Amino acid sequence: MTYSGDKLLGGPQAGMISGEPSLVAKIRANPLFRAMRVDKMFYAALEATLLSYLREDYDAIPALRMMRISEDELARRAEEMARQLRVGCPSLHVEVFESQSVLGGGAAPGSTLPTRVIAVKSDSMKADELCARLRQSQTPIIARVEDERVVLDLRTVEPAQEAAILDAIESMGKASHSKSKS
Predict the structure, then answer these.
(1) Cβ(163)–Cβ(171) under 8 Å?
(2) Burial class (CB in 10 A: 0-12, 13-18, 19+), 54
(3) Which DSSP string corresponds to 105-141?
(4) Chain mean position to CA 130
(5) What is the pLDDT of residue 106?
(6) Long-range pairs of 146-151 with CB within 8 A, sequence gap ≥ 24
(7) Is 1 helix (H, G, I), strand (E, B) or coil?
C-alpha cells in the first residue's frame, strides 16, 4: 500500500510504502530506492508522529489538532480578531461568516469541515492586491479571495500567529486608507 506521510498521517512530507515484507524488500532492492532514501531527520519526525498516535496525543499533530478545533472556538477567535481589526483599522470592512475548510487532496479529496472565516475588504484596494500584499508581508499571510474579499480561515491559523496576521492586515489597511486620501 502506498500513501502520503504528510496528508494521511499528519507527519513529514513523504511517500510511504507498507505491506508484505517480501514485497517491500523487492522495492528496497530497486536501484531507485537509493535515490529516494530519506535521512535521519525524516525518521525522527516520522517516529515522533507515530508515537503521538500511540499515546493518543492527537493535539501534538498539527493537522489533527486543526481538524479538531470546534466551530464555537473558531467563531470566538474570528469574532475577537474581527473586533480588533475594526478598532485598529476602521477603513477596512471586516466580517465573520461560516464557510468550509478543505481537508486535502490525495488523502481526503472533497472532504470539508465547517469553519468560520474573517473577510476583509478595502474601498481603495482590490482584494487581489490586498491578498498579494499580505503574502509579501514580513510574515507571509496566505489567504484566498472570495467575492472580492480577502478571506482568512482560522482553522489553519495557530492562536500564536494571530498577532502577526492582525499587524499585517492593519498595516495593509492603513496603506489602503492613505492611498484613498491621495
Answers:
(1) no
(2) exposed
(3) SSSSTT-EEEEEEEEEEESSS-HHHHHHHHHTSSS--
(4) 19
(5) 59
(6) 146/119, 147/119, 148/121, 149/93, 149/119, 149/120, 149/121, 150/119, 150/120, 150/121, 151/99, 151/117, 151/118, 151/119, 151/120
(7) coil
For position 176, what pLDDT does the model report? 58
Q: Which of 74, 70, 71, 67 is nearest to 8 (CA)?
A: 67
Number of H helices, E strands in the chain: 7, 6
- Joined grid coordinates for residue 46: 516520522
Question: Which three cell numbers mark 153?
Answer: 480561515
pLDDT at 19: 93
Tell me the average confidence (pLDDT) per consecutive run of 10 residues in the chain, 182 residues long. 79 87 90 82 92 94 89 96 93 93 70 92 92 92 94 93 91 65 54
d(CA 108, CA 131): 27
